[in-house]
Design a protein that fits this description.
InterPro entries: AceGlu_kinase-like_sf, Asp/Glu/Uridylate_kinase, Carb_kinase. Keywords: Kinase, Transferase. It is a single chain. This protein has a nine-stranded mixed beta sheet, with helices on both faces. Strands 8-4-10-11 form a four-stranded mixed beta sheet. It has a three-stranded antiparallel beta sheet with strand order 5-7-6. The chain is α/β, with parallel strands linked by helices and about 300 residues long. Helix content is about 35%, strand content about 25%. The radius of gyration is 19 Å and the shape is globular.
């Protein structure tokens, strides 16, 4: 099968965990082990998140500017490309450490967005480390940064426009066809826009990696699109009557409201892929990836009427 994996930020850095290279390396080793276990049998493209990593670089930019006021902070598209190289390098290295027969390629990928996207008027994408509510309000009072609640913590939010196209799509297809496990569209891809002459320029935003992964899955005609996160889709998650959904259809999932800041975009992405008619989709735990590919774990989303199986 040709599979697109959307690797959640929790697979790279746990919530509240210190933003160190050592912590990221340890988490990526675990992620690599799960991916390597299915890589021999399938064509794989990995799309990873980069929220904590971009946020850290933004904080470092800000700190350095205090030391050197004449230094202009790097824009978010440049920071995004830096994280693609950093995370891709670690994934390549740890995947090959597990299986030296794997051919792995990381591609810094540009994703086209529209400057007219309404997301620019309402920042919603979480980036960077977590803060207490008190500290977040202090930062907002002293800058133009916007923070919103993310669970019990607060994090900075930036615009998150819809992905329109993937610039390096032919290169991804070429690498796959040549037998490579491909790491691409990291962080949703480096956001760019085109003028009337098709000249590109970077955009100050972050694209939702699940939506870019879904677009990529459509473009390369994937057989299966998997979003790897904390676990399956649940009905009434966190309540006494919560129930794990084993199998569902887009029509069935449409009967529920999922939180916009967590499961909502993931459900939208998998439903969009299934509705495209190209294949099935799934949401589940990174550490059950091999079982997800065999429909033994996670939530499988397939075409059909409004059906939910628990």
């Amino acid at each position: 099968m040709r599979i697109v994996l959307a690797l959640g930020g929790n697979a790279l850095l746990a919530r509240g965990q210190a933003l160190t290279a050592e912590n990221q390396r340890d988490n990526i080793k675990k992620a690599a082990a799960s991916i390597a276990a299915i890589a021999k049998e399938h064509e794989i493209v990995v799309v990873h998140g980069n929220g904590p990593q971009v946020g850290l670089l933004m904080e470092q930019n800000s700190a350095y500017q205090e030391y050197s006021p004449e230094t202009t902070p790097y824009p978010m598209d440049v920071l995004g490309s830096q994280t693609c190289g950093m995370v891709g390098y670690m994934l390549q290295q740890e995947l090959r450490n597990i299986d030296r027969k794997l051919s792995i390629a990381t591609l810094v990928t540009q994703t086209e967005v529209s400057k007219e996207d309404p997301a620019f008027a309402n920042p919603t994408k979480f980036v960077g480390p977590v803060y207490t509510e008190e500290r977040a309000k202090e930062i907002m009072a002293a800058s133009d940064k916007v923070f919103k609640a993310d669970g019990e913590y607060f994090r900075r939010v930036v615009p998150s426009p819809m992905p329109k196209d993937i610039v390096e799509l032919p290169q991804i297809e070429t690498l796959l066809t040549a037998g490579n496990l491909v790491v691409a569209c990291g962080g949703g891809g480096v956001p760019v826009c085109f003028d009337d002459n098709r000249t590109s320029s970077g955009v100050e935003c972050v694209i939702d990696k699940d939506l870019t992964a879904e677009l990529l899955a459509e473009k390369i005609n994937a057989d299966l699109f998997i979003i790897l996160t904390d676990g399956s889709i649940y009905r009434n998650f966190g309540k006494e009557d919560q129930a794990e959904m084993k199998q569902a259809t887009p029509a069935g999932l449409a009967e529920f409201n999922f939180p916009a800041g967590s499961m909502g975009p993931k459900v939208d992405a998998v439903c969009k892929f299934v509705n495209s008619g190209r294949g099935d989709a799934a949401i589940g735990s990174l550490f059950e990836l091999d079982r997800i590919t065999r429909n033994e774990a996670g939530t499988l989303i397939t075409k059909g009427e409004g059906i939910i199986y628990y």
